Amino acid sequence: MRKGLAIITGADGGMGREITRAVALAGYCVVMACYNAEKAEVKRKLLIEETGNADIMVMSIDLSSLASVNAFACRMLERGDRLDLLMNNAGTMETGLHITEDGLERTVSVNYVGHYLLTRKLLPLMGKGSRIVNMVSCTYAIGKLDFPDFFIKGKKGSFWRIPVYSNTKLALTLFTFELSERLKERGVVVNAADPGIVSTDIITMHMWFDPLTDIFFRPFIRTPRQGAATAICLLLDEEAGKRTGTLNVSCRPKVLSEKYTHHRQSQELWERTEEIVCLLYTSDAADD
Q1: pTM of the entire structure?
Q2: C-alpha to C-alpha distances, 66 to 80, 237, 278, nearest whole angstrom
Q3: Residue 207 contacts by C-beta under 8 Å, 6 or more apart in sequence?
Q4: In a 10 Å sphere around its CB, with 0-12 CB exposed, 13-18 middle and 19+ buried, how is residue 4 labelled?
Q5: How far apart (Å, rounded) are the C-alpha atoms in residues 25 and 50?
Q6: Selected catalytic residue, list 35, 116, 140, 165
Q7: First to last CA, the chain
Q8: Does residue 165 have an active-site annotation?
Q9: Cβ distance 135 to 182 under 8 Å?
Q10: Which of the residues in the chain have pLDDT under 50?
Q11: What is the rounded CA–CA span in Å between residue 282 and residue 279?
Q12: Beta strands per DSSP E along 43-92
């Protein structure tokens, strides 16, 4: 029996495939929102065979292009189907400074601004019981938001991939908390999942010390299936659906200090992001 609609960004990646498999097995119609549609189509066929769920489709989205995100969201809005699950999973860790067509640093666009716009645009399709899960990272703890450098360079000073990545994950975490407060009255649940350090292509540094890093840290690195477990729990578990505005690790909510739950830059981040995307989403999609 079909349960409803789920959208998963980066559904063809390591953790994305595990999340898609679990959601499909639970009976949802799944939209795999992917950058490389051709690659994703191969994964889609395998997932249909594995799950027996034929209601899996691929739709192209480029989170580094706000026009692409907007176009994807408009197609979903035109369909008008209720959206039960939105999994903002896709991510990147760029090896150098790359500026998008929108004037944003690419990591910032893919990991944060693109997902912000996508979520805001799709809110009219969500109602009581809908769930939004943002894939963050333990690196949020070392993130910093230096405005306006955050949006245009990722950080102050020269480009360095790890701090830039960490900054985007802090931004996505703060977005989770802020959005959850704004949607409480509507009954839409918003949570963040920290997968831990996962063995995916994103952690490969392409540096001479990669083999050494692999030897020393491999015992502590999770498989994509292990990394995806917390997000899957937040999407499908009945008890997890009763909490909102939480950061979760190993399928359990993590107690955070007010430094994060009431971050001094949270409102400024929201307002600055709104300025960037304000022309591309329905202004009454969420309570202001």
Answers
A1: 0.91
A2: 21, 32, 11
A3: none
A4: middle
A5: 9
A6: 165
A7: 37
A8: yes
A9: no
A10: 1, 202-206, 208-209, 215-216, 283-285, 288
A11: 8
A12: 56-60, 83-88
Q: Are 159 and 253 in contact (CB under 8 A)?
A: no
Q: Read off the amino acid at residue 19.
A: I
Distance CA 214, CA 200 (A): 12
| Joined tokens for residue 75 | 């197609």
- Measured from the Cβ of residue 198, the count of other Cβ atoms closer than 10 Å reads 18
Reference 147, options 258, 262, 276; nearest CA is 276
Element counts in the chain: helices (H) and strands (E): 11, 8
Distance from CA of residue 13 to its chain's centroid?
Answer: 13
* Per-residue pLDDT tens over the stretch 118-170: 999 999 999 999 999 999 999 999 999 999 999 999 999 999 999 999 999 99
CA 285 to chain centroid, in Å, comes to 19
* 246-249 β-sheet, strand order: 56-60, 29-34, 5-9, 83-88, 131-135, 189-194, 246-249, 252-253
**Is residue 261 within 8 Å of 54, Cβ to Cβ?**
no
At 256, is the secondary structure helix, strand, or coil? Answer: coil
Cis before 148? omega within 30: yes
In a 13 Å sphere around the CA of 186, the CA atoms on its Cβ side amount to 19
Angle at 73 between CA 72 and CA 74, to 5 degrees: 90
Q: List strand residue ranges (DSSP E) for the chain, in order.
A: 5-9, 29-34, 56-60, 83-88, 131-135, 189-194, 246-249, 252-253
Residue with tokens 């990545």: 165
Those residues whose C-beta lies under 8 Å from the C-beta of residue 130, and which sit 6 or more positions away, are 82, 83, 84, 85, 86, 187, 188, 189
Which residues contact residue 122 at a Cβ distance below 8 angstroms, ignoring those fewer than 6 apart? Answer: 7, 73, 76, 77, 83, 86
Tell me phi and psi for residue 275, to 5 degrees: -60, -35
Asked if 87 and 133 count as a contact pair (C-beta separation under 8 A), the reply is yes
